[in-house]
Every structure is written in structure tokens, then in C-alpha cells.
């Protein structure tokens, strides 16, 4: 006997009021006149239905990230950069989310990793008056959005824990508009704010902690201009542990006699796959009519990246790292442990393969593409603009299909090759990546150095306060990302949502 399928649910009303009902329209009109629906229009422009029954947290976050016009920095499908649920996997495997859903703390972690500015509160860390204040503030602006984590039972709805953005507020009736991302189940609806608070003030059985709400907004600039941390490769857990836990222990040895000795110790013990952990943010473009056409926005992005790279290479730490690598042949050891993957030709090939995966909508399958050829060209502008370095590559997949991609990189002077290691100074060379990674380490990393003179020397080299503002922001973002990922791995993000990230 065939089982009847499920098609929507009847919205229990009261307590909820259907957004499309006569009363719901009246509430909407009145709220618009009172100025508490400003955030609604951006949200409704990117309103989406969760693609999996347990993806409410991912759908809510991707909807808000797109409404805030936060650039993910990587392709979604074709040439388009766009947040999608399937891209939000840096804090929890998608298969696990699909099976069991996601906790409030992990959604907060995802928002941070995606480059958003996040303030999160569990109900036992806040009050209903504070919640109302935040809802009103975000409803009066389109620069901030509220995501609520609540239990459906408070509204007599079927189901348990759920995430959805709040689309607006009616002050006189003290009601909030929930833009339910499970649109296959319930339509958007108005609910009394005190009842929404009660729905949030419940315990998530999977964590034993209260649910709550988060305020998501965008930073004044893209948090990752030139570097970002990657946790898509399993190596990030090993590398993060080494940097956060093991390095301080290594440096507490009595053998730390000078800065060269300290850095060499760090380098010689690096995990073999550390290059998978820190990624150099590259622009990946599809060939169009065999030429290169850059928008003003893209030119601006490249110019800023060039400036960040220049500032990295002007630091005393970069110069010391370069001397150590090239004089002690330590670079050869790093090249060998990382499989020669950070030479410029290999990185160009790797990124071109990744680009082909992005362009075909298969961002997780770049290993299925095989590099065929590449070339490096420098385009010199005739109108005074800076020249642009372009790596063009052709890759093929298992079906003999070809994909041509262009990778735009900030222009950098090529340094001569050293020895037999085929070392290249073009970004992202080992010295470039290592400089960014060491600057991003928390200050306490170096505190175990016993020799005061050596400690002072290292502290001066890794000090963030002395960096130019642009590079300082880049480094602080990396540091925050490292600490957030580490806390997420250890499940500490659930304990204290507002722990400092730098």
C-alpha cells in the first residue's frame, strides 16, 4: 500500500500569523510605515528553501551572507561567486549535518569562517529586553541580520530545533517576522516576540546548552585579501595542533639561543602537509574570447593584494625567514616534505585544476582534473594601471573534456632559483606563506622562550602592533580564524561563544 507523501503543513494560528494572510499583510504594512522592516528587503531578495531537511542552519546562514553581499572568495558554479549551503563545511562535515543537523555554536563558527562579523548570545547569557533591542536595531537597518535558533514546539509546530532569520519587527504588537527556510513546511509567519524568546530559551539535547540568537553583519572590508586558512583538507587538524599546542613546547627548550634557532626549530618540525593549511587567495577566471578584461572592481582587488604582499615582504620576519631558508638549505627540506607543491608552477597547476572544478560546479573534485599546460604572461596597461600577471592553464578531466582557466596574481619580482630546490620568490613561495602563518600565531606561542633576549627579539619580529594597518587586519583575521577553527575542533566554541578571537 502506497504511503501518502508530505506536502506542507497547516500553520498553527494562533499563535503564528501567516505572512500572506490579511492580518499578516496589515502587520507588514504598519511595520514598513514605522521603519522596522528595512532589513526585510535584502533578506527577501535572497530568501531560499533549505535543500535538506537538516540544513536549516546552513540555509539561514547562506541566505544572510548573500543578503549582506559578503564575497565568499571562491566559485559556486560556473564563474559565479555565491554562498550556497554546500560551501559551508569548514566547521562540520556536510554528511554529519545532513544526518544530525548542526548546533548553534557550529553555525557561529561557520559565520566567522565565512568572513562575517558575528555576535552570538544564548538565552542564559542575555535577556528578552536585550533580544528585543537587537531585533529592533537590525530591523531598522539592512547592515545586520538576526538568525534565531529555537524549538518549534513553542508555536505548536511539528518538529524540534530549527534555525531561521528574522525578517522584521512590529513594535506596537511586539511581533517578529520569521522567514522560515523550511518553506516546504511552513510559510513566513509573524509570532509574538515573547513566545519566540521562550522558544529560544530551551535546551538543545545534542549539546545540553541553551539555544539563542546571533547578529550577523559584514566587516568593512573583505577579511581575507591574500591569505586564508583551509580546513577542507584533513591536514588542518594536524597543523593547527602543531602550531597551537606543539610549538610552545618546542620553544621552551634551553637550546633556543637566537631568533634563527627559534625559527629553524619551528620549520624543521612542520607537519609534512602544512601547505594545505594556509592558502593563498587567487583570482580564478574563465577565458573569454581569448583575451583579458578586468573590471574596475577586479583591478582594485588585485591592487590591494599587491600592496598586502609588498607589506609582507617588507617585514623583518620575512627577511629573516628568507635568509634562513636559502642559507641553510632548509627550504629543500620543506619542499621535500610538502612534495614540491609550493613552487610557482605547481601551485599554478593546482589552482588551475581547482578553478576547473569550480567552473564546472564541482568545487570538491579538483583532483579529478589533470594539468596539461600552463604559461605565465604579464599584461602591461597603456593607461597607467599596474601590470597584471596571469597564469593560463589547460586542464582535462577523466572524460577528456578540456577547461581553460586564467589565474590572476599580484605582480611580484621573481627571485633567482637557489640550488637544486627550484625555489621561486614569486608568490606564494614558502617564505611568503611562512611569514603570514607565523605572524598569525597567538602572542603566547612565544612566551615559553626562556632566554629574555631571544624572547624580546622574537616578540619584536612577530609584533602585530608595528605592522601597517592593511597587513595588520589581514594577520588578525588569520589569527582569529586559527583560534576559531581550533576551538571548533575541540568543541570549545559551544562553551563560550564570545571568547576573544585574537
From TrEMBL:
Tree of life domain: Eukaryota
Enzyme Commission identifier(s): 2.3.2.15
Domain spans labelled Peptidase C83: 1-221
Alphabetical GO biological process terms: cellular detoxification of cadmium ion; detoxification of copper ion; phytochelatin biosynthetic process
Matching Pfam families: Phytochelatin, Phytochelatin_C
Keyword check for Acyltransferase: yes
GO MF entries: glutathione gamma-glutamylcysteinyltransferase activity; metal ion binding
Sorted UniProt keywords: Acyltransferase, Cadmium, Metal-binding, Transferase
PANTHER family reported for this sequence: GLUTATHIONE GAMMA-GLUTAMYLCYSTEINYLTRANSFERASE (PTHR33447:SF2)
Protein name: glutathione gamma-glutamylcysteinyltransferase
Organism the protein comes from: Buddleja alternifolia
